């Protein structure tokens, strides 16, 4: 389903950073962005049959900057290109590995977004992330106390992380 | 005098450069705390050095001191780990820890995504939101 963000720029007021452009409110029916559940190892391509889905993606493609809401290990991460994703340590991954993300819940730009149900079809994007570091975090202390009951505990953990750099985030038409 | 320009490095976007540059292994030939270290140097270190050709591996005796592994990174910082009385498998774990780090201080990661790009949809402004009708 394509969603548009309404009237963000309507009006004469100037924003400090970006130029004003009026965008008409346009809503599209949720017909054909047939999204399939993408498994981590293989992505099934869904044929885009109707023409309205092509025009949706080309609307998105005409914009300049994109974001995506990627689902990694059942957690959402809102990412743009060049971002660093901080994950819990992935065991089966080495430094320099390139991971293709194919569980994308939302793919959007300034004025439009495609929401997957549950995921966006993988023929619309190409998103890759490189493993750049697998550090140890700082000690985190959890302190529990029940007052007047002579109960207190201190738990210390040093979390292990994997850092991914989003090396590619492209929208394909 | 204007400040010097520093390049904005985004490791991983175009090319990925591993950050660990050098690993220095210090051991003592006589003391007991270096026993596991000496065994690791004999058994596992050569295999590690072959698998990671970008890391310069230096082995130096340091008499009458505990065994130590010192990792040097591309940002000039170093991390030092004392491996006294450790078994070779534990030492291999410490070596992997040093190899996978990037020389930064250990810190708490508060947010799931670290980003320097501007927001794609812009910052909300009450003057540009959906107008309400009275």
From TrEMBL, chain A:
For this UniProt entry, the molecular function terms from Gene Ontology, in alphabetical order, are: structural constituent of ribosome
One cellular component term (GO) for this entry is: mitochondrial large ribosomal subunit
- List the InterPro entries hit by this protein, alphabetically: bL21-like, bL21-like_sf
Q: Which residues, if any, are the signal sequence?
A: none
Q: Which residues form a coiled coil?
A: none
Alphabetized PANTHER family for the sequence? 50S RIBOSOMAL PROTEIN L21, LARGE RIBOSOMAL SUBUNIT PROTEIN BL21M
What does the sequence similarity comment in the record state about its family? Belongs to the bacterial ribosomal protein bL21 family.
Protein's name in the database: Large ribosomal subunit protein bL21m
UniProtKB/TrEMBL annotation, chain B:
Any single GO BP term: mitochondrial translation
| Record's keyword terms, sorted | Mitochondrion, Ribonucleoprotein, Ribosomal protein
Where does the record place it? Answer: Mitochondrion
The record's GO CC annotations read: mitochondrial large ribosomal subunit
Q: Which organism is it from?
A: Mortierella hygrophila
Q: Which PANTHER family does the entry link to?
A: 39S RIBOSOMAL PROTEIN L43, LARGE RIBOSOMAL SUBUNIT PROTEIN ML43
* Entry annotated with the keyword Mitochondrion: yes
Primary location: mitochondrion
Q: Name one GO molecular function term.
A: structural constituent of ribosome
What's the encoding gene here? Answer: MRPL43
Return the similarity comment: Belongs to the mitochondrion-specific ribosomal protein mL43 family.
User: Which Pfam families does the annotation name?
Assistant: L51_S25_CI-B8 (PF05047)
Where is each Ribosomal protein/NADH dehydrogenase domain found?
29-102
Upper taxonomic lineage: Eukaryota, Fungi, Fungi incertae sedis, Mucoromycota, Mortierellomycotina
Name it: Large ribosomal subunit protein mL43
């Amino acid at each position: 389903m394509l969603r548009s963000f309404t009237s963000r720029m309507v009006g004469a007021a100037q924003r400090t950073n970006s130029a004003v452009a009026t965008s008409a409110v346009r809503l599209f029916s949720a017909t054909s962005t047939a999204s399939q559940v993408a498994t981590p190892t293989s992505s099934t391509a869904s044929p885009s049959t109707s023409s309205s889905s092509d025009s949706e993606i080309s609307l998105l493609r005409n914009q300049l900057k994109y974001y995506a809401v990627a689902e990694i290990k059942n957690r959402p991460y809102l990412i743009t290109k060049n971002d660093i994703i901080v994950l819990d340590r992935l065991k089966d991954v080495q430094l320099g590995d390139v991971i293709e993300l194919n569980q994308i819940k939302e793919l959007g730009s300034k004025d439009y977004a495609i929401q997957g149900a549950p995921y966006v079809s993988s023929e619309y994007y190409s998103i890759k992330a490189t493993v750049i570091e697998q550090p140890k975090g700082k000690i985190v202390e959890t302190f529990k106390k029940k007052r007047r009951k002579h109960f207190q505990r201190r738990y210390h953990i040093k979390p292990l992380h994997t850092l991914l750099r989003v090396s590619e985030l492209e929208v394909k038409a | 005098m204007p400040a010097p320009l520093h390049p904005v490095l985004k490791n991983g976007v175009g090319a990925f450069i591993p950050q660990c540059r050098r690993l220095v292994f210090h051991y003592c030939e006589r003391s007991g705390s270096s026993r596991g270290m000496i065994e690791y140097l004999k058994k596992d270190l050569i295999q590690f050095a072959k698998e990671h050709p970008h890391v310069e591996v230096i082995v130096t005796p340091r008499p009458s001191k505990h065994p130590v592994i010192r990792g040097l990174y591309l940002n000039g910082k170093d991390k030092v780990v004392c491996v006294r009385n450790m078994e070779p498998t534990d030492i291999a774990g410490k070596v992997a820890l040093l190899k996978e780090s990037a020389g930064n201080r250990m810190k708490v990661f508060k947010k799931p995504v670290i980003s320097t790009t501007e927001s794609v949809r812009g910052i909300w402004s009450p003057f540009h939101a959906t107008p309400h009708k009275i």
